[in-house]
Amino acid sequence: EPDEISLSIDVFFCNDDIAKAVIRRTLPSYPPERIFTTGTPTLDSLENDKADEYRKTTREKLGVDDDTLVVLYLGDVSGDYHGCDLEINKKTFERTYEALNKAAEIHPDRHIVLLYRQHPRDPEPISAAEALAGSSSTVKILSGNQPFTINEITAGSDVIMSLQGTDNMLAPLRGKRSAYLAYEGKGLGGDLLEHDFGPEIISAIENTRGVSVVRNKEDVMQMIDTILSVPADITSSRYLGNASKKILDIVFEKKS
Q1: d(C-alpha 166, C-alpha 178), whole Å
Q2: What residues contact residue 221 under an 8 Å CB cut-off, 6+ apart?
Q3: In this predicted model, what pLDDT tens digit does every residue of 89-146 receive, in sequence order?
Q4: I need a surface site. Which of 47, 215, 240, 245 has the fewest CB within 10 A?
Q5: 186 close to 205: Cβ distance less than 8 angstroms
């Protein structure tokens, strides 16, 4: 019961004011002065305080100007997904590249770059990227691998895409847009997402601001069109400070 829970909890730490409102609604008798909005320690590892610096230096190293739309493809290991196409990573990358080229044709005044960052366990990491990099297509392919850290390369990007990487959900916390590549076809991302997440979680993902589920090339093109037309305003930076320090300061203050 809520009252019993209230008696057993000394303090609540929550991500934001929405979470605080949920707690107050669930536990109306709980003292509001013991509910602290601190952000989440997960954000501390994202180095958001260095994002502007990382964006500038990463783009300089890549030779990409600030007006270029940079899409980061985070590779995966096809063999990790039992029952899926054995070349799911390669085929997903190729479809994404084709869709971006179609989008670039619609927006000839804007440059689009596709970064490929391989999964550290991928036994054939950049074969698809290498095969396409030499083509005469409009979209240029560049490596997003080391020496760039994941924080540097995401800061230098505008959009993050993957099959179901963790960075898809971290993207809004970085102020970035992201997309789950749930392409239609037997054993591809659509089947994978349905199998691993199910309709309720997929619906929740689609209702998360800044996060999309794309099922075909047209969805990718529409997403890129929206990004180029509407400036990104995904998240507030209010709670992107040092959450761990805030929590520890409050705990030790309570004990003193």
Answers
A1: 11
A2: 99, 102, 103, 106
A3: 889 999 999 999 999 999 999 999 999 998 878 766 555 565 555 565 789 999 899 8
A4: 245
A5: no
Cis peptide bond upstream of 31, omega within 30: no
Q: Quote the tokens at residue 119.
A: 């999964």
DSSP class of 52: H
CA 203, distance to chain mean position in Å, is 17
Strands (E), 105-243: 112-117, 140-143, 159-162, 177-181, 211-214
Quick one: DSSP state of residue 122?
-
- 3-class DSSP assignment, residue 163: coil
pLDDT digits (tens, 9 = 90+) for 141-178: 998 998 999 999 999 999 999 999 889 888 888 889 99
Q: Residue 156 has what DSSP assignment?
A: T
Rounded distance, CA 55 to CA 8, Å? 45
Based on its alpha-carbon atoms, the radius of gyration of the chain, rounded to whole angstroms, reads: 21
